[in-house]
Input
Amino acid sequence: MNYRIYDRLRRASSPLEVDLIESYAQGRVTRRDFVRRGALLGLSLPFLKAVMGAAPQGNLRPGTTPGTSAAAPALKDGGTVKVTVQKPSGPLDPLAMADLGSYGIVAQSFEHLLKLGPDGTIGPGLAESWEMNADGSEWTFKLRQGVTWQSGAPFTADDVVATMDRLTTGGNAALGGVLKTGGAKAADANTVVFTLEGPNGQFPALVSVFNAQAVITPKDWVAGSTADAKRDGTGPWKMVNYDQNTGATFERNDAWWGGKTRLDKVEWVFNNDSASRVSGLQGGAVDAIVQIDVLGSEGLQADSANFKIISLRTATHRQIWMRNDTGQFTDKRVRQALAMTLDRELMVQQLFSGQGEVANDHPIAPVYQYFDAAAVPQRTRDIEGAKKLLAEAGVSGLKATMFAPELNEIPQLAELVKQNAAEAGIDITLAVESTDTFYNEWCLTYDPICDGGQEFGIVDYGHRPTPDTYLNAAYATGEWNSAHFKNDAFNAAFKEYQGALDLAALTAACGKMQKIANDEVPYAIPYFYNYLSAHSTKVAGIQISALGQMFLDQAGFVA
Output
């Protein structure tokens, strides 16, 4: 321990930053979690490295850095990389998009205040720095200067303020109950001050790349406009053409603030069939796949000479929703019974070959440093227990239709749920739909938006660096509340979590929410799984977010 440097760094820090530094020095958080939490608070990477140098700690988990394809070899300039991905299920509306296919396309031209940083964290994007006041109720963002829109107009604080007002007016799932319309103000052309509805120590994550809809659009952007019809952005790529059924082409934006990209162009090829995506990469028709399934990609995983697999430990999960307000699942004992039938270990092994971990019917994953492992015992499979709960609820011969999208492993998950539940006398009929049909029904035709509508089904949730979006949108506010869950105790615990500024307080609040979610079971959540992406070893410098976004501004062909 270099106490001279360590003490100097502590003296230069706020009380909240000191709490994090001491937690790291005392071994209560890993190096990886220290970097993630520090980035959220706005600490620079050089500062974080200085702390780790002064207080060395040997508990960094082994493996390649999440979010990147490892240290890039020498790359050459020029060329076109072809990427294949599921096709967007709806219009490229930055404010209203709700699927991973759309997220990835929009993120090529439009950027966030905070982009994907090292180690799967967030880092400076259109904002160069950010800091909060003493209680976390106000955050000040300093914007990057010299940035221009592809139209030639300058990027200013007015663009950020207008974007935030559109997001809050439109009911953005992550910002609901956090930021009101008018809560963002331009202090000057390069500074935005966010006055929140209450203290929130996680706010930077909510305006980062992990809130996909929070891409910054020009101040004169009209809600409902699409990225293909109104081609603009501050990002590294300019859209040349777009067809929702076949793909998109982008060329280098020579005016990008980040400098000249190595690649000349990027082509995105839409393909909803996972097997043909894999064969396309193996045959050289494409250079990268945004997301691969464990099952069906064994050939890629076994051929390290020709293909690089990026594997991220994430909070990505599936929510099996059961309506709480009407229908056959209003009694929580029925929901508990369904959850009790699930063979979670089998699901992780059969669907992911062990590349995941069992979940406990709440969305606070073990990957979060404030996950409370002691909060509630793990729910295990108990068919007799499930039958007993159904009998106590006065339910027999339960029959239900489960709606699910034809996406990744979800159809196979639905089959397993059906088989598991049948042993307890629950008869499930499956309605597996194309992503177009499913998301149009799930997200566009019900009031409030994205609430599910049907009483029973499965919906996907991509990774976030904090659980705020899951907790706010699916449990607390209702924008994505498929289960129509309303619980005052949960909402109070969520407010406590939002206002928590240190790890101990965050963990305590998370423990309360874990208990309530596990007991009430508005959603059965059987697992979290590793997000896998693949690309040819002929290219390097690719980054992924585990939210459908693949970033190619640092990518190139190996020299």
